[in-house]
Amino acid sequence: MRYSIFILTFFYLTINAVAQSGDLKTYPSGLIYSDETMKQLDKIVDSLNSKFLSCELNKTFFSKPQGVGHYIYFESEKREGIKKALANNITFEDFVEQYKKAKITKNLLVVKSEYENYDNEKVIEFSGLGFSNAYNKEISFTKDLTQYKELKKGAWVVSERKGKDGYIEAFYFKTAITSIPIVEKYARMIQYADCMVDTSSQIFIERGSGKSKYNRYEVAPKVKLFLDYVNEATDKPIFNEKEEDYDAYYKELKKWRKRKTAIIEKDLQSTEKFKHLISAAAKNALKEGGSNNEFESYIYKYYSKDVALKLKRSRKVYGSCSMDSAPREHAKSIAKLSAETANWETFLRSHLDIMNDRFDRVAQSSYGDASFGTYIGELEALEINVHDLMLGISLRMDNPSENHYYGAVHRVGRALGESKYAQEIENTMSAMIADEKLDLYNRAVIYFLYRNYINYITDKSKKKANEEKLKAAIKQLPAYISSQISFEKD
């Protein structure tokens, strides 16, 4: 699957600058991990940083294939003539002259991407980037893909939607679609991201039998047996449906939660029955699924932190909406357990998912962004090179390492606004936008990153200063791009 940047390029138009609001529990240090956990992580970071310093750049990263193109859109039942003309490779000038009803958007930075869709089909997509208030123009193909491998100046790519309400859309390439090497200083940022975010691992794993046999509300039989045993042994209150006294029930439930830990630790955990039931339940859940937060908390305290982590990594938590913090809480639990068990590769991916708010939800929107923290402070406290890491996961390339971690531009922009190295990062972003040695698509990516960064600045004078810095950098972009960029408010 892919993480597309294209859908992110206009987030800055719809989101307002807000101060970080902590949605996860913090310790007295102000961080979401304990001092002991941070010490464990710090040792790993020291080792990784030392390893990176001695590494040679052993891979050439190439930019996404890109060029300059014109987009055309023709909506009419009478499309045969235009189809034939495009098939015969009509010149753009002749097309404009002959088909005056066609809608044309000129001089777009067009980027070619290849990925697999949710049906596991290979897809080639062409996206003409829009700036300021414009939307991207996108055309994608799933069949006869070899014809799009090499696209020279003057070529057309054409898509048709058939039927009464059909239309034709196409790109005409004013320049060839080409890819160039990403220069070393930026490639090192990508390499640093790959060094820190282990590319050989993913957060979620499958049990030996694959998919869980149980839905999100069910637990495995032996897990239920263990939970029933604990509830009965600790005298968990039972809700009386006839009386329907919710307030009284929840008061009793609150009291039970306070006393159950003491009962387990004093009377239960050392018994053979407790040990047998929790062990059998753990094996049942590892094999078949059917775990939950409550059971995993018992596994964490009384059985094995490693097993608790494996159980959490074996199930995904889906949110009901963008305000639902359950997926973030699950990711934080995975990150915390990964840290405590020295499982770095899972830790950093989980932490970055929290920062990027990268979770599966029934409904997605930017509405919940303001209430979710970015937690960049934890990474800085570990002395990770946040400057290179954040830029390394923001840059896009045609040949990433397998499982390379991509950051969401709007979330990374917000996180950078909370960095203690903000000024250094501002200067780097400005230089990257102006750098003619960097491919235009990545210069555009960093422009969108900087624009999002600015949107989260609350200090008016600082915001103004950064807008001026960004405007100066934009002047170094080709005129067909810089002329599209506006700082006027909607």
Fraction of residues in helices?
A: 40-55%
Total number of β-strand segments? 6
Outline the biggest β-sheet: 6 strands, antiparallel
Give the overall silhouette. globular
Report the uncertain regions: 1-22, 362-368
Our count of helices gives 18
Order of helices and strands: HEHHEEEEEHHHHHHHHHHHHHHH
Question: How much of the sequence is in beta strands?
Answer: 5-15%
Mean pLDDT: 87
Q: How far from one another are the termini?
A: 34 Å
Question: What Rg is obtained from the alpha carbons, in whole angstroms?
Answer: 27 Å
Number of domains: 3
Largest sheet: spatial strand order: 4-3-2-1-6-5
SS-derived structural category: alpha+beta
Structure characterization notes:
This protein folds into 3 domains: 1-64 and 180-204 and 316-490, no CATH class; 66-173, no CATH class; 218-314, no CATH class. With 490 residues, the chain is of the alpha+beta class. The chain is globular, with a radius of gyration of 27 Å. Helix 5 packs antiparallel against helix 7 (272-288). The protein has 18 helices and 6 strands. It has a 6-stranded antiparallel beta sheet, with helices on one face.
